[in-house]
Amino acid sequence: MKIAVGADHGGFELKEHVMSWLKDHGYGVEDCGTYDGEVSVDYPEFGRLVSKKVTGGECELGVLICGTGIGISIAANKVRGIRCSLCHDTFSAKMARQHNDANVLAMGGRVIGRGLALEVLDAWLGQTFEGGRHQRRVDQIGDIERD
Ligand code: RB5
Asked: What would the mean pLDDT of 62-71 be, rounded to a whole number?
């Protein structure tokens, strides 16, 4: 499975750890930047880049990191077909996949420590969408995009 990963300067350091964890665990990784934590950049660009990799089919899932995870998740959720979940705990991460079929995980590099971030990532990746009544609700989210 290939995963697109992106961050702004606030998430750069955690992005590097996330990519290394993903590689160590056998995932393919597409690094969408940013490539320098010292240079201030704008998070919407990376939210868009990673999201387009997912909706375009180049990557199955995406991970986005900014300082809080808020801005980059808002940006990602503007891309049609993206269901980006901002999670800083493992329960939410599991539910985001099981119930919401989230295809992008966002985290805040200034909010969460490295250890917990990797547990959240592991929990998120370890689940699958349950479908059933949740499919109906996910379809309704898609309907909103077509309003
Ligand atoms: C950048 O300073 C910061 O605003 C950004 O990383 C993020 O937290 C925005 O939501």
From this structure: 98
Domains of the chain, by residue range, sit at 2-146
Q: To test ligand 1's pocket by mutation, which of 43, 45, 107, 110 has the most ligand atoms within 8 angstroms of CB? A: 43
Instruction: Name the band, by pLDDT with cuts 50, 70 and 90, for residue 122.
Output: very high
Question: What whole-number percentage of the chain has pLDDT above 90?
Answer: 99
* Ligand 1, pocket-test mutation among 8, 72, 77, most atoms within 8 A of CB: 8
Regarding beta strands 61-66 and 28-31, do their DSSP bridges make them parallel or antiparallel, or are they unpaired? unpaired
d(CA 147, CA 140): 11
Give nearest CA residue, ligand 1 atom 4: 67
- Report the alpha-carbon distance of residue 26 to residue 111 in Å, rounded: 27
pTM score over 0.90: yes
Atom number, ligand 1, closest to the C-alpha of residue 74: 10
What is the homologous superfamily of the domain 2-146 according to CATH?
Answer: Sugar-phosphate isomerase, RpiB/LacA/LacB (3.40.1400.10)
